[in-house]
Amino acid sequence: MFTALVVGCAVAGLAVGSFLNVVIYRVPRGESVVRPGSHCPACAAPIGALDNVPVVSWLVLRGRCRHCGARISARYLLVEVATAALFAGVAARLGATAALPAELAAVATLVALSVIDVERLVLPKRVVYPGLVVTGLLLVAAAVHDHAGGRLGEAAACAGAWFALFFVLNLAAPRALGFGDVRLAPLLGASLGWLGWRYAVVGFFGANLVGAVVGIALIASGRMSRRQPIPYGVFLAIGTVGTILAGPAAVSWTTGIR
Ligand SMILES: [Zn+2]
Predict the structure, then answer these.
(1) How far is the CA of 127 from the centre of ligand 1 (A)?
(2) Whether 123 and 32 share a structural domain
(3) From the CA of 18, how far away is ligand 1's center (Å)?
(4) Across residues 237-243, what is the average pLDDT?
(5) What is the Å distance from ligand 1's center to 17 Cα?
(6) pLDDT band at residue 256, thresholds of 50, 70 and 90?
């Protein structure tokens, strides 16, 4: 049963990752994620269903378009594999719980946002808001199913607290933390807060610690100048998903906090 859940979520992750690739490519260009169907970015030839199987098609075609031979970025493969691995990991951590779909929705949103943030240094509202709405509705459904109004309240409180904290951080250091990060904060706070306020606290410090360490390392090694904006959303995503995956081990030290 448990193995079936993890494998099932991994397979679902491949399909979701394939859709996230469409989101990552089209949303920053202002295109619809629904129409037209998949097509080669170079020659615009439609990609048939058989050439659109996650991971397999990319490998069989060796990362090239069947029609024009243009290179298809390895990013497509990586996003699908990463989404599948994260879905499997979160399913293994949470098991067959009512909130699993909500947490997977949050993780999928963060995968798409991370790639877009690295490539373009933006966190598009057209990804953040749908991700927040879907995750929120799935958390409400989980609360109804589990009769867990208290947990829903905790998730909402953490979402509000993360938003307020990021709002203040944005005022204090707008260059380090843009308003896109403030908009993203409720999604992070809610997905962690459902697991308990301790997760939201650890996730907050974990994300900012990762961001600070990587940022300082990049500046110290001369790969980046102090004035350059950094894709902070990526660190927030790593801190959040990392905390979910680490589970009780991540929050054990907070049990001394009253
Ligand atoms: Zn082509």
Answers:
(1) 27
(2) no
(3) 18
(4) 95
(5) 21
(6) low
- Looking at the DSSP bridge assignments, the partners of residue 46 are 39
pLDDT the model gives residue 26: 95
Query: Could you tell me if 130 and 219 lie in one domain?
Result: yes
For residues 176 and 170, give the distance between their C-alpha atoms in angstroms, rounded to a whole number: 8
CA distance 32 to 47: 17
Clarify whether residues 240 and 181 are in a common domain: yes
Q: How far is the CA of 43 from the centre of ligand 1 (A)?
A: 4
Could you tell me the distance, in angstroms and rounded to a whole number, from the CA of residue 31 to the centre of ligand 1?
19
Whether 84 and 204 share a structural domain: no
Ligand 1 (single-atom ion) residues, CB below 5 Å: 40, 42-43, 65, 67-68, 70
Condensed to tens digits (0 to 9), the pLDDT of residues 7-54 reads 999 999 999 999 999 999 999 999 999 888 888 888 989 988 888 899
State in Å: Cα 46 to ligand 1 middle: 8
Answer yes or no: do 112 and 79 share one domain: no
| Distance from the alpha carbon of residue 109 to the mean position of ligand 1, in angstroms | 28
- Residue-wise pLDDT tens digits, 96-110: 999 999 999 999 999
CA of 60 to the centre of ligand 1 (A): 15
Q: Which domain holds residue 112?
A: 99-258
Cα-to-centroid distance, 37 and ligand 1 (Å): 14
Of the three residues 72, 96, 120, the one that is the final residue of a domain is 96
